[in-house]
Give the backbone structure.
Amino acid sequence: MEEQLEQSKRRLHFCMALIGGWFGAYAILHFHHFASAVTVNFIEVFTSAVQENWIKALLRLGIVILYGFTIFLAACLSKRCKGDLRMWAILSDAAAACVLSVLPEHLSELGVYICIFAMGFQWCVFAGKYGYPCSTIFSTNNLRQFVDAWVQAHLFRDSDHIPRMNLYGGTLLAFHAGVIAECVLWAMGWGSCTILPVLLPAVLALVWQRRDFRMRERIEEAFEPHHTA
């Protein structure tokens, strides 16, 4: 059962990476802004101020503040909420997709804020795998880790790095599968509705999350008599 649990957790992680790539590409194509990267928003606070574009500077500052609040919220909920935060992260992505699909064009900045909240919350909840920090909403560290692990595993014949290579490689593939899916739908002229099909991997993620949750309960119940004895 433990092997099945790990398989379910791995599938869930890759599914969330696909969703993260889908949202990232949607934000760029629809809002011309990569909402998942707080680094860009932080820099644009100052570059916009230097250019005396105060409205843009304030909007980007708002994004940074919202990102920080999302991290704060996730940290608090992880201590106070008895439920599985993974379910709430998936549902927030699904809700964000539904709202974005009907959001009017003149509210594009609000759309960026919606993406920021959904992706920020997902990042906090799905922060890694096997003890490795592995983002499901951007790829900078994932690419570095994958290349490093590949070098260690194939050039220096160190098999200990193969799980790390598979994790980061799989995450990169899943993330960019989401990017490609969004781009294909955009090229087909779906417009705002290109975000709606992300509900399909969200449903799959909920199924795997629920299966994971039930298997954890069974494992805990199986070990409970030994602890009480």
